[in-house]
Design brief:
It is a single chain. This protein has a single domain, classed as NAD(P)-binding Rossmann-like Domain (Rossmann fold). The strands form two sheets. Strands 3-4-5-6 form a four-stranded parallel β-sheet, sandwiched between helices. Strands 1-2 form a two-stranded parallel sheet. The longest helix has 28 residues. The protein has seven helices and six strands. It is of the alpha/beta class. The structure holds nicotinamide-adenine-dinucleotide. Nicotinamide-adenine-dinucleotide binds next to helix 1, strand 1, helix 3 and helix 5.
Length: about 240
């Protein structure tokens, strides 16, 4: 489980632990003080292949062959192609593409010995372009494509799915509202565009991960499940046009 120190990743860690799963997670920084004591932590950058190997080896040392991998670690930047620097590319592609690839490559040989379930955290941004998020959008489309390839190449022993969250209330979302001219109105407008009547929470994503890695989901593989409160179900046509 990558990037479990905060946000959506922390909710996934907490849910898996509550369900009785032994969890190892990682992040580029030190172990967060408030991480549950039973969760193992490795300080590592998933974009570096040797670090990904270290994470998987640490998991094998602690629990034996891993049966679940959740690729959650990711970075978003708000830039067009022209504004994107080589450093931005390395950061975003490093975490969102190379990181997911490195972790899958490191874990698959051990899952193939028994069985396994991989869940990649993609995004609705990988299906439809959010403005000024060029390489983030593209990086999440990569995650969706890799998810299907792994399911096809490594089934039936390994199932691989992606969850594509929409607007989830982590620090990322609140920071965005704070930048608006009228943050209260910006949030109300955002909520009004969700048929579910609210923004998503990290627990919404954790609930879906818990299902996908469970025995209840053995027929689910190669899919990218959108979880966005209906945000992207709406036609872009304005109400009242017809
Ligand atoms: N918040 C949203 O609205 C939203 C929507 C769609 C998809 N997502 C995706 O969900 C995932 C989690 O997002 P979040 O909102 O919780 O973000 P966040 O920034 O709160 O958490 C991301 C975590 O990933 C870790 N991380 C980043 N790069 C890493 C690397 N190279 N190596 C190891 N760890 C690394 C960070 O340290 C952090 O703990 C990301 O993949 C993000 O793209 C989020």
């Amino acid at each position: 489980m990558t990037g479990g120190g905060r946000g959506i990743g922390r909710a996934i860690v907490d849910r898996l632990v509550a369900d009785g799963t032994r969890v190892l997670t990682c992040g580029r920084g030190k172990r967060p003080d408030d991480l549950a004591a039973e969760v193992a932590w490795v300080q590592a950058d998933v974009g570096i292949s040797a670090d990904a190997e270290t994470i998987v080896k640490a998991a094998r040392d602690v629990f034996g062959a891993p049966t679940i991998l959740v690729n959650n670690a990711g970075i978003q930047i708000t830039k067009t192609v022209v504004e994107t620097t080589n450093e931005d590319w390395d950061l975003v592609v490093g975490a969102n593409c190379r990181g997911v690839f490195n972790m899958c490559r490191a874990v698959l040989p051990f899952m193939a010995e028994h069985s396994g379930s991989i869940v990649n955290i993609g995004s609705t941004s990988g299906n439809a372009a959010d403005p000024r998020m060029a390489i983030y959008n593209a990086s999440k489309a990569f995650v969706h494509g890799l998810t299907r390839s792994i399911a096809v190449d490594h089934g039936p022993k390994v199932r691989c799915n992606a969850i594509c969250p929409g607007w989830i209330t982590t620090g990322m979302a609140s920071d965005g509202f704070d930048l608006a001219r009228d943050p209260v109105r910006a949030k109300a407008d955002a909520i009004a565009r969700h048929p579910a009547g609210r923004l998503g929470t990290p627990a919404d994503i954790a609930n879906a991960v818990a299902w996908l890695v469970s025995d209840q989901a053995t027929f689910a593989t190669g899919q990218c499940f959108v979880l966005d409160g209906g945000l992207t179900a709406a036609s872009p046509l304005q109400p009242g046009l017809f």
